[in-house]
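User: I'll paste a sequence; please echo it back and then give the predicted structure.

Assistant: Echoing your sequence first, then the prediction.
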Amino acid sequence: MFDYLPTEDRDPSLDLARCFFSDHGQDLADAAARLGGACGNARVVSCALQIKTACRMNHRIRRDLVALHRLLSLEDVGDPACLETELFGALHPANPQVETICVLTDMLSNLLTQIDSSLASRAYSEGEGNSAAA
């Protein structure tokens, strides 16, 4: 009936990702499609589905979030063999989507930083638990 997880079992980094996708998923999909074509859009959909069904943040989700950040950050633009270069070249700087892409890039960067902090904290806590058990 309800998807209830006890608070102590919830993964804060996964909750952050879920909130981000809930609030900005459509804009993220639009931006990814604009800069990465159908593959960019598919990565957003795939990542959203993984986030929805996961119990904990995992390396695959984080890897996909990093790939989306690379796409929005234009890291592959400039390579003439990349679709991203062609799609970016067709985007006019005055297009309102440019500002949305910039804001999403910053928010995704912040999300990745928060996830990394949460994962480091979780690893430390799990290490403390292992030390206490020994």
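The CA atoms of residues 37 and 87 lie 8 Å apart. The radius of gyration is 17 Å.
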